[in-house]
Every structure is written in C-alpha cells, then in structure tokens.
Amino acid sequence: MNRSLSTEKTRLQQKRSPTQLVENRVCFAGPHSELSIYDTYEQAQKVSLKADSLLYCGMVTGAKVMHTQHNGHVPFLPHESFILAPEEEVFIDFPEARWEQPTTCLTIAISKERVAQICDRMNDVMFKSLPYDAVIDPNQHLHTIHTQATQQVLDRLTSDFVQNDPDRDLLVDFGVSELVTRILRHHGRDALLRFTQSSPDASGLTCVIYWIEQNLSTPLDVNLLAKMACMSRSRFYESFKRQLACTPLEYQHQRRMNRAYQRLQEKRSVTEVSYELGYQSLSHFSRRFHQHFGVSPRQVTQIHKVN
C-alpha cells in the first residue's frame, strides 16, 4: 500500500512538471467527471476560467482573486470551495504566485447529467424540509470555507483519480457523488435557513431551527425543543435527523462553527468569538474549530489580515 501511494505521488509530481508559468494544468478523466490540478508560478491578472459543466473549485495553496458577476472581486483562499455554473465565466488574479511558492488549485468538472441525477434524488430526500415549491438548484453560486470532512473527500477523490486501480472508475464515481451531495445539502440547508428566518412559525421544525439560530451560545435541551416542535422526544429526534441529516446538537455545532468563521472574517478576536458562542474555554473552542475546518481560528484571522 505504501509503495502504491508513493508511486501515485511520483506519477503526479512528474505530470505536474511545468510547461507554462500560468495555470499549468494536468488532468485526469473519470466517469462523468474530470479532475484538473492547476499550478501558477508567476503573478497574473484576469485569467479566464469557464466550463460547459458544473465546475467545483478547491483552493490548495496561495491565494486568488475571483472576479465574478455575482459578488464583484472576492478572495479565494485555502480550504475554501467555489462553484462555477455551466457556461459561467470568471476572471482570476494571482497576486502571490511565484516560482518558489506556486498558487495551486484543483477543479472537478461534473457532467450536467450526473449532477441532475443526484439532484433529483436529493430533492426527493429533502422535499419535506424545504419551503413549499422550493427545489435545490445545483448551479447556484457557492463560495464558502469547507469542512474537514469535505477536505477528506477531496483528498480521497484526488487519490482515486490518479491511481491505477481496477476499481478506479467506481471509486471516482462514489467520490463525485459524495461531493455533489455535500454541495446540494449545503444549498438545501441555506434555503431552509432563509425560509426559517422569514417564517419561523411555518412548522415545528422551522420553529426549532429559528430558536437554535437565535440561541447558538445556549446549551440545548432536547425536551424543550421537542415541546417547541409539538412532538414526543423520540419522534422529534428522528424527524430532525431525517430532515437535516444530523442531530440537533450536531446542527448547533455546525451553525456555531459557521458563525465563528463569519466573525473571524470580520476581524473579531478569537477570544471574543469564543465567548460570544458560549465556549467557556478558549482552547476547547480552538480545538473544535480545527476539528471542523482543518485550520485554527488564528490561521483564519492571519489569512484575512493579509488579504
């Protein structure tokens, strides 16, 4: 196994030997998908990126500035995900790239047909928790820090694309399905959260989600939440997990982490953010944050201080 991993790494390094200084690309085809790894070795501006299918972008090292129609120009940093809709074009600046320390990004192009198949299944799974007549649109804009779990999917998927394995195509398809599912789940939760904020009393579930959102620093009492939802404890717990794919405690943790990242982006201190979200121990907050995102709170503040 170690020899196999070493061979994959050597093969990838050989393929990534630069033939051009800006967006030097190596690619690996898979079923309904294609992985590309881009290395840029010098500063550049307004480099075009466009694809005819859904394009997932994950930042690896360095920093980019993405010029988009949606949000103007936005920094694109390590541990962040960026989704490009089919036929959408962005223009990219590379402010930090240099020969000794290239800027590296990976993209995964996923066919419209494969995305549509997974999206139909996700809409069936999530239709009870979404607002009336709402459906998940896989092509909507997304730019967010991704979790450690998503990073592990990307690492595993990159390895599956590169390796010479008899089950390679099957493993790649599993990985692509998981990545798309995570993207769609993110969109679905965002839609539910927006609906909850405008109509908190629409259902027992929206009432509970609204309360959690307004009380992120408060320890959860599942019995109280079940009363809010007008359900027994066991029925509420089962319903919540079925609709949101996590327990109420896990959901609160995810929302705390997202709020923490937003506050750190706003250049709030780590200590201030920790206590705002109900953590009595700064070390405990930092440990949970690192477990969730794969980077420490101080790393986030340093990155955004520079950018």
TrEMBL record:
Keywords: DNA-binding, Transcription, Transcription regulation. PANTHER family: ARAC SUBFAMILY, HTH-TYPE TRANSCRIPTIONAL ACTIVATOR RHAS-RELATED. Residues 206-303 form the HTH araC/xylS-type domain. SUPFAM superfamilies: Homeodomain-like (SSF46689). The keyword DNA-binding applies. This is AraC family transcriptional regulator N-terminal domain-containing protein.
